[in-house]
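In the lab's daily routine, each protein ends up as an entry in a very long ledger. A line of letters takes care of the sequence, but it says nothing directly about the fold. The three-dimensional part falls to structure tokens, numbers that each stand for a local backbone shape. The outcome of that step, for a single protein, is printed below.
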Amino acid sequence: MEDEDAVEEECMALEAIFMGNFARLDDRRIRIIIEPPSDEGEQPQGMSLYLELSFPDGYPAVAPVYDLSNTNNVAFSNSVRSRLLTGLTQQAEELLGEQMVYNLVEWVRDTLPNIVQEEQDSEVHKTLDPEERAQPSTKPEKERKEKMTKAQKRRYYDKYGAVEEKPRGWNWVDIISHLSKRPMQADT
């Protein structure tokens, strides 16, 4: 009976904390949608993970059973999910005897981006040839000129005198040199 009260109490607390991301599937099963961490007021970046937990008899002295096989988790590779399950098991062993679901969810929220990033890095590393792995990329990067805003252009032209009228004939030297290079045509 104490187990039932502990589970009920923890579920009520989790529902208050996670609100819309918490669902009670039955008396001893819950689902929590774990969104990646984000800054205050910003939308979370990345994919959400659906963690389903079953509370066995004897909880919290016995670790809950985790399930990441929800169809919404197909975006995560099997290796990411297995690493999460291994980590959850290790975390739960440290927290045996106390209510642990909130701590487990926070652990997943904190470590999920790192695990996904490591997985992506290892995938990139696997696709490279052994020679490419040994040598760093030697591609020269193209330098881009920074584009000036309208105000920057105006200040530039003001600074270098582009506002003043140019004196008549200031570019005649260029025209005369151009005309002198053209072949003369006979008047017909």
Observations:
- The chain has a mean pLDDT of 78.
- The domain at 2-128 is CATH 3.10.110.10 (Ubiquitin Conjugating Enzyme).
- Strands lie at 22-26, 29-34, 49-54, 65-67.
